[in-house]
Amino acid sequence: MLVFFLAVFAALRGRPQDLPWTPLDLSQPVGMFTGRKLAGLTHDFPKCRALLDRAGVRYTALAPVSAGRCGYRDGVRFDAGGARRIAFEPAELGTSCPVAAALSVWEWNVVQPEARRFFGQRVASIDHLGSYNCRNMYGRATGSLSEHATADAIDIAGFTLEDGTKITVLADWADTGDKGTFLRAVRNGACRLFSTALSPDYNAAHRDHFHLDQAERGQMSWRSCR
To answer: Are 10 and 16 in contact (CB under 8 A)?
Structure first.
């Protein structure tokens, strides 16, 4: 019965992306199950790369890294050009393929539309604090391994607009004007695409960045957005 109503709902709205069985296409608008489908790429590197290729995203597949409990086998680095015109600063960004796929969808469907809405221009670059880092959560000596330890996470510090305007999580999160509203809008949009999206609303450790990850638990019903 639920399947029937989902099919009718999607058909009436002309949104096949809202159906769970519609194949994921990174170039299509975000649907009700897009986040789940992105998380499902965690164990399918060939499919993830094929989706990046089909969407026109230029990238280089990275050599596997193995360092005890840390490492990755599905790393990619964005290259210049292609459908993805946005830059990352620092430029050398290697992350897992599922995170790269989610970042692409986030840019096209959330970051750029919100930038045009609030500032009338595009985001030229996304400032980040890195992805792969072999460590436990919060850098503790013991405890659970961070998603950064498998390149399944990225920390976003801010954005630079085409005219050079800087918008940072640290300086502008509490702003009640366009900058702060933009940051909260792109955080909320990330919540639909990543397994975890954490901001300064979560705790002081995230006062200067968004933590976005595509943890394996994202394939199940549990998600975290704050």
So the answer is: yes
